[in-house]
Amino acid sequence: MKSIQESHPSIDIEVIKEALDKRGYRLDEIVGYGAFACVFKVFSYQYNQYFAAKVCYVGISMMTKNIQSYTAEINALSKLYHPAIINVFSYFNDGDYLFLILDYCSKGSLREYVKNTSKPDYSLIFSWMRQAIEGLVACHSMGITHRDIKPTNILIDQYNRIKIADFGLSLNSEHGKYISRFAGSLPFTSPEMNSCPKYDPLKADVWALGITFYYLLYGRSPYKASTETELKKQITEAQIVIPATVDKRFTIILGMMLNPNPEERSSAADILKVFNTIRVNKRAKFANVIETRKQNQRFKSQVVESQLLARKIPSGHRRNSTVIQRN
């Protein structure tokens, strides 16, 4: 991987430190960097807490792209306020640099979670998936499409909550409105983005999040391609197999999100309804288990009181364990 100086040769750390310092922030360390910006962990003296400072260089060679990305992110985040979406607290410019002060997510991204986890916590993953869908519904309800959803753009804070981040490619989109501008990372683009002149960006977001969920559940991409041409072919032909090695709830949701036909692919709002149904059913199941335990306890008490301790409890009153068979 290239160093920050190789990737962004025009970045001057000392200038950035000075710009942050005079606004009450102490630069602690570099968190990461991408095509348009570098991210630093900073400490606010005023609020006595850590934030992430996203810094874009707008020198002549990169001015147009970086200003567009910076503006798109501010426009989106200024409209969005949701627990599953990164918060912007401040933004300013200083010389050739543009700054965004954002939530600091100390546990990295979903990509880092997958790389560093040998045994996935599926209950945690289910919670993250629901949070991400809620965040995407919030975006789409405000007419905003993300257009670059992927594991590195979904962050995890200190409380294990996820935050959808990096809105630099986001766009205002009306429901039912098709666009022709291609954006995002190729492995997370939908079949129609690679085969049709125009596509629905809302449905493309759903697909990208579906691929992200696949990666989170199985620890790998659904594609097996060694070249970009081969990858595009597999995406266009929607050559995705969803292994039945995880809970059926997950495979149902993936099937809704990774339908190759965008007309039949579920919306984020419809997927959230399924999540909420599963959550309600889970509560109902838990309530039934509690009631069964109470009934069993009452039954045992009756046995004791009637001095029938030596008598075998009829099999019809025994609790049975439910075993989930996985193919």
From TrEMBL:
Q: Name one Pfam family in it.
A: Pkinase
Keywords in alphabetical order: ATP-binding, Kinase, Nucleotide-binding, Serine/threonine-protein kinase, Transferase
Q: Does the keyword Transferase apply?
A: yes
Q: Where does ATP bind?
A: K54
Q: Which residues form the Protein kinase domain?
A: 25-278
Molecular function via GO = ATP binding; protein serine/threonine kinase activity
User: In which family does this protein belong, per the annotation?
Assistant: Belongs to the protein kinase superfamily.
Q: What is the name attached to this protein's record?
A: CAMK family protein kinase
